[in-house]
Amino acid sequence: MKLHLKLHLTEKFLWEIFELIKVKDEIMDTIWSKQYHGLKHPLALFQPDFFEYRDEYWGRYKDRKKRERWAATIRRLKNKGYLNIKDLQNRKAIIFTPKGMDRLFDIKIKLTKRKQRPDKKWQMILFDIPEVKRRDRDLFRKQLKYLGYKKLQRSIWACPYDVLELTQQLIKRYKLDRFVRFLLVEKVKI
To answer: Do 178 and 140 touch, CB atoms closer than 8 A?
Structure first.
């Protein structure tokens, strides 16, 4: 998958690990039933797969500096709280933490391909988020920009793209259901 230019190196790396895990999980699910898997942790990358992926990511190499860079990147992601390394099924596995999953959601929004709504209408979102949820409100506004919303007023945003589902996921993520309303309008003058 070609990554969007807005992504930082860390985001690209996290997204590629996520894609690798997702693909391997889909392949395993089609080959074996979940009963055969036994205990299965979502978004886990087991150690042999991890080293395979490392070689694939950096190319087959014997260069010590490249191996050290790879290990440092994983260590940095672990220290930031995006990844964890645990023993699962008697094997070491790299697992995304809740913070890592949040970061993946942010990356998913950045990578969203925006398509015009087929009915040519605009989605309008109105919100009145209290000051005690200021951090969530600021993050919510930032994500709205990534989805293609334009600010009409401080808490009124409009978007010509078909991103309703992602917008609803965003609202659930920040627990803003009580503070947000949707409208569908014919035209918007920006």
So the answer is: no
